[in-house]
Design a protein that fits this description.
alpha/beta, 5-stranded parallel beta sheet
């Protein structure tokens, strides 16, 4: 407020420069009967009152100093005019207090009202002294008293009104500043919320619902392996196959709850049922409420009391962060939790429809193979290789080609799974250590896919560790066999001969011989 008023009033002070040519012209025309010295004083004071506030406005950052220089310069010009014009209009002493109202500060108005009141009394006394001389206090004291009283009354009444106006303007300015501050805070809060929403939306990603929840099931089976515990997953087949949401946070919350429930009790069971709120026909881009029910025989209240359910507490915080609801319906017999989370539909096809479609396509492909069995018998063996090491991929590809096997080599499991779903392979080779998904994670995804093809296809692990203990662990994961790294031709041939025989009615050597004969006949 002060800065804005200073800019406006500083330019108004420049108007005082017009007094200089006006005074000089009037002096030349003989209208002003001032002495040369008086004219010089008027011109000098006018120039100073014009230039000093404007100069300070340009060079100083002290708004209080600029304000006082502006108001004092105006005051000096008012006083100068009162003295030299010999006017009886005492309202000129109210002009500056009235201008000070522009600063919306009652204290400033009050200060300049008091200053001008004192200057007014001094100038009135000076005029009376000039008029009556030494007899002022003797013969004309009553005139002095009456004049002073009149001037005080004449000044005080409008000055009080001006001060009341200043007080009211200050109150309005404070209310406006308070409103602007609240509005600014509201806008900042909205921007912060928008920023958080944008960041949240940026982290949202599409995910396959079936794979997502069966992935949680695989993680839980890893926890209970070899123990007297049980985990069951039930996913509603009417759910859309693809949803969009913060899947990593949701997975962390659900895994944390289930792991606490499984680890606390020696003979724990956990059942997770997944569905969505009824009455909604899912469409792409539509929001649906994913409803997850978790049941267990674990006394979660007792576990919390013993500080053995920290993950359970953190899970509730994560669900709150996801703007979901966490309803604890547990009783003395069973722990029951209902979790509702809002998700966006990415593909409205239901899990049931996709499963039926895939089965139909697979049955058609199998029927076609039966009708063209001679073609299947003589075609090249085709395998999938997943390894993030380019040199290792080149080596195994060269070895496979040398024994007349066609290979698709990819660098990560995501690409590999897409190829495996879209094409038919007779074998899969997986590297164990990969950055995004390990070989163990990929083979679990393969074995949990709902088709006999994925259950029966030989999946071979390529690993540095091929001890008997490690082999048993790999077999428990779902691998068919393991070959050591670095890859050797003899190991590839052994694996092909061992596992291709189970997929074809011929041994590998018989199959290769027939294939060579077929190639010669076609040539």
């Amino acid at each position: 407020m002060i800065s804005k008023a200073n800019k406006q009033l500083s330019f108004i002070n420049l108007i005082f420069l017009l007094v200089i040519p006006v005074v000089l012209i009037l002096q030349r025309l003989g209208i002003l009967g001032y002495a040369q010295n008086d004219v010089i004083i008027i011109v000098a004071v006018s120039a100073a009152c014009s230039v000093i506030p404007f100069f300070l406005q340009r060079v100083s950052y002290n708004e209080q100093l600029i304000m006082h220089s502006v108001l004092f310069a105006m005051n000096v010009m008012m006083w100068l005019g009162f003295v030299y014009m010999r006017t009886e209009y005492y309202f000129v002493f109210l002009i500056v207090p009235l201008i000070a109202v522009r600063y919306a500060s009652h204290s400033i108005v009050q200060q300049y009202s008091l200053l001008n009141f004192l200057v007014l009394l001094c100038l009135v006394f000076y005029r009376l002294q000039q008029a009556y001389g030494a007899t002022l206090f003797d013969e004309h004291f009553s005139d002095l008293y009456t004049t002073m009283l009149h001037r005080v009354v004449e000044f005080a009444i409008p000055a009080i009104v001006i001060n009341l106006i200043g007080l009211f303007v200050e109150h309005l300015a404070k209310e406006r500043d308070h409103y602007e501050e609240l509005e600014m805070k509201r806008l900042e809060a909205e921007k912060e919320q928008e920023k958080k929403t944008e960041q949240s939306e940026e982290r949202e990603e599409a995910y396959d619902v079936q794979n997502f929840f069966y992935g949680i099931s695989r993680d839980m089976e890893g926890i209970i392996r070899g123990k007297n515990k049980h985990f069951e997953m039930e996913v509603d087949s009417a759910l859309p196959v693809m949803l969009i949401g913060l899947k990593d946070e949701l997975r962390e919350a659900l895994c944390s709850i289930c792991s606490d429930l499984l680890l606390y009790h020696e003979e724990a069971y956990v059942k997770m049922s997944v569905t969505f709120l009824a009455g909604v026909l899912p469409k792409r881009g539509q929001k649906i409420t994913l409803q997850i029910e978790i049941r267990s025989n674990t006394d979660i209240a007792k576990a919390e009391a013993q500080h053995q359910a920290l993950n359970f507490f953190l899970s509730q915080k994560i669900i709150d962060r996801l703007k979901g609801s966490f309803d604890n319906q547990s009783d003395a017999k069973e722990a029951v939790f209902i979790i509702n989370v809002l998700q966006t539909v990415d593909n409205e096809m239901s899990i049931e429809k996709r499963t039926n479609r895939d089965l139909t396509e697979m049955q058609a492909a199998r029927a076609n193979q039966v009708q063209n069995s001679n073609v299947t018998l003589y075609r090249k063996i085709k395998v999938l290789v997943v390894d993030d090491n380019p040199e290792s991929c080149k080596l195994i590809d060269a070895i496979l080609n040398s024994v007349n096997v066609e290979a698709d080599c990819v660098k990560n499991g995501l690409i590999g799974m897409k190829l495996l779903e879209s094409q038919e392979y007779q074998m899969v080779f997986l590297d164990q250590m990969m950055p995004e998904k390990s070989g163990g994670e990929i083979v679990k995804e393969i074995r949990y896919m709902q088709d006999d093809y994925y259950q029966d296809i030989p999946v071979i692990l390529m690993s540095l560790n091929t001890t008997q203990e490690a082999r048993e662990e790999y077999e428990a994961m779902g691998f068919s066999d393991v070959i050591p790294k670095p890859i050797r031709v003899a190991d590839i041939k052994r694996i092909l001969q061992k596992w291709i025989r189970e997929a074809y009615p011929l041994t590998y050597l018989e199959y290769k011989k027939l294939l060579e004969e077929s190639n010669e006949s076609h040539s």
